[in-house]
């Protein structure tokens, strides 16, 4: 209300029915034209009832009526006639500073009412005796990170009650369920949050956590990309999971669509493996990638120079010697057969 008044706006039809409590404990005002309950006249200042134009002090009267009801449990007035009388019933069991302020806010005379700024200065701030509880979604994520039987039961209970997870939470929850070995939850999670294009898939989660059983089960999700253009193969290569990489080789030709994790746009899985220092994966991948370059004109050899481990070994495998030349191997199958692009 203070913000609105500072910008020359009024609340007009404000009432308890137009105040909502969000999941994180914040009060939110509904669009005023949509919040007109049958008892709205009981929250209209007396001068507005008489046809006077609306102004900030009329909002203060309305706020006083709402605060009164919050303190007493009932509205201050039962009828328009009672409002016109100007007699404000005393609130019992509340601090005198608060009840005096409410009485001033409900004054018949607009000139006698405090401004919204004065109201805010009159009430000392304190701690919330009933802080808002954690959102179900946050409790669900905490349970997933905790592991253990009790955590599993709590997570399943929250999951079955229904959750509104962000795309980031969906991806993390999928990965954690797999990592915890909670296959039933992972399967149900897949059914409830079947990812759209540009989202993390079950196959990607399985690749991150080296879950070969689940990887084979969701191998039909190959070639799907997340919001950065990453594939399950890229996640497996970054983590150094050679067995997963072998299963996911049909994705080797796919490139990223935008920068992420120090891998540029149009980056390749071999660049990612070289940067991560996984020499065995680079050796497996290099026949399938010849002189590939990202959007910044960098190749896998350039990424190998950034590797924290096995950099020399990787550069030896690539055999570039800084000149951009790639050693050729004999008896390499046709790329379509290797990548399965005719499936």
In words, what does this structure look like?
The protein is an all-alpha fold and 343 residues long. It has a domain at 2-122: Orthogonal Bundle (Transferase(Phosphotransferase), domain 1), CATH 1.10.510. 45% of the residues lie in helices and 2% in strands. It has 19 helices and two strands. It has helices at residues 2-6, 46-49, 56-72, 80-85, 96-105, 116-122, 136-146, 149-161, 167-179, 183-192, 202-208, 212-217, 232-239, 242-247, 269-276, 279-285, 300-304, 311-318, 335-339; strands at 19-21, 27-29. The protein has a two-stranded antiparallel sheet with strand order 1-2. Strand 1 (19-21) and strand 2 (27-29) form a beta hairpin. Helix 15 (269-276) packs antiparallel against helix 16 (279-285). The radius of gyration is 32 Å and the shape is elongated. It starts with a helix and ends with a helix. Residues 34-39 and 320-343 have low confidence and may be disordered.
Q: What integer is the average pLDDT?
A: 80
Taking the alpha carbons of the first and last residues, their distance comes to: 62 Å
Shape: elongated
CATH superfamily of the domain at 2-122: Transferase(Phosphotransferase) domain 1
Percent strand: under 5%
Structural class: mainly alpha
State the helix count. 19
CATH topology of the domain at 2-122: Transferase(Phosphotransferase), domain 1
**Main pleated-sheet profile:** 2 strands, antiparallel
């Amino acid at each position: 209300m203070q913000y609105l008044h500072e910008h020359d706006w009024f609340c007009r039809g404000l009432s308890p029915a137009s105040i909502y409590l969000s999941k994180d404990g914040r009060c939110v005002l509904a669009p005023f034209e949509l919040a007109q309950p049958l008892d709205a006249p009981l929250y209209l200042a007396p001068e507005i009832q008489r046809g006077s134009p609306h102004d900030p002090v009329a909002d203060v009267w309305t706020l006083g009526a709402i605060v009164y009801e919050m303190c007493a449990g009932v509205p201050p007035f039962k009828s328009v006639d009672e409002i016109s009388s100007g007699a404000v019933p005393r609130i019992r069991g509340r601090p005198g500073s608060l009840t005096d302020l409410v009485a001033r806010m409900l004054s018949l005379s607009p000139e006698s009412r405090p401004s919204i700024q004065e109201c805010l200065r009159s009430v000392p701030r304190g701690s919330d005796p009933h802080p808002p509880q954690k959102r179900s979604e946050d409790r669900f994520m905490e349970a997933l990170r905790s592991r253990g039987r009790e955590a599993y039961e709590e997570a399943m209970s929250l999951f079955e009650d229904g959750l509104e997870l962000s795309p980031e939470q969906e991806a993390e929850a999928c990965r954690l369920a797999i990592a915890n070995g909670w296959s039933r939850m992972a399967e149900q999670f897949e059914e409830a949050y079947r990812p759209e294009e540009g989202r993390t898939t079950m196959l990607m989660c399985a690749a991150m956590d080296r879950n070969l059983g689940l990887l084979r089960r969701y191998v039909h999700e190959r070639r799907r990309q997340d919001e950065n253009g990453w594939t399950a193969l890229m996640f497996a290569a970054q983590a150094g999971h050679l067995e997963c990489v072998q299963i996911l080789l049909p994705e080797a030709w796919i490139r990223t669509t935008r920068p992420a994790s120090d891998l540029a746009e149009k980056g390749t899985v071999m660049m990612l493996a070289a940067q991560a220092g996984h020499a065995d994966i680079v050796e497996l991948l290099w026949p399938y990638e010849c002189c590939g370059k990202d959007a910044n004109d960098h190749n896998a050899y350039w990424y190998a120079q950034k590797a924290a481990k096995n950099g020399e070994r990787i550069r030896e495998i690539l055999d570039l010697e800084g000149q951009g030349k790639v050693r050729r191997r004999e008896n390499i199958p046709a790329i379509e057969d290797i990548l399965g692009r005719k499936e």
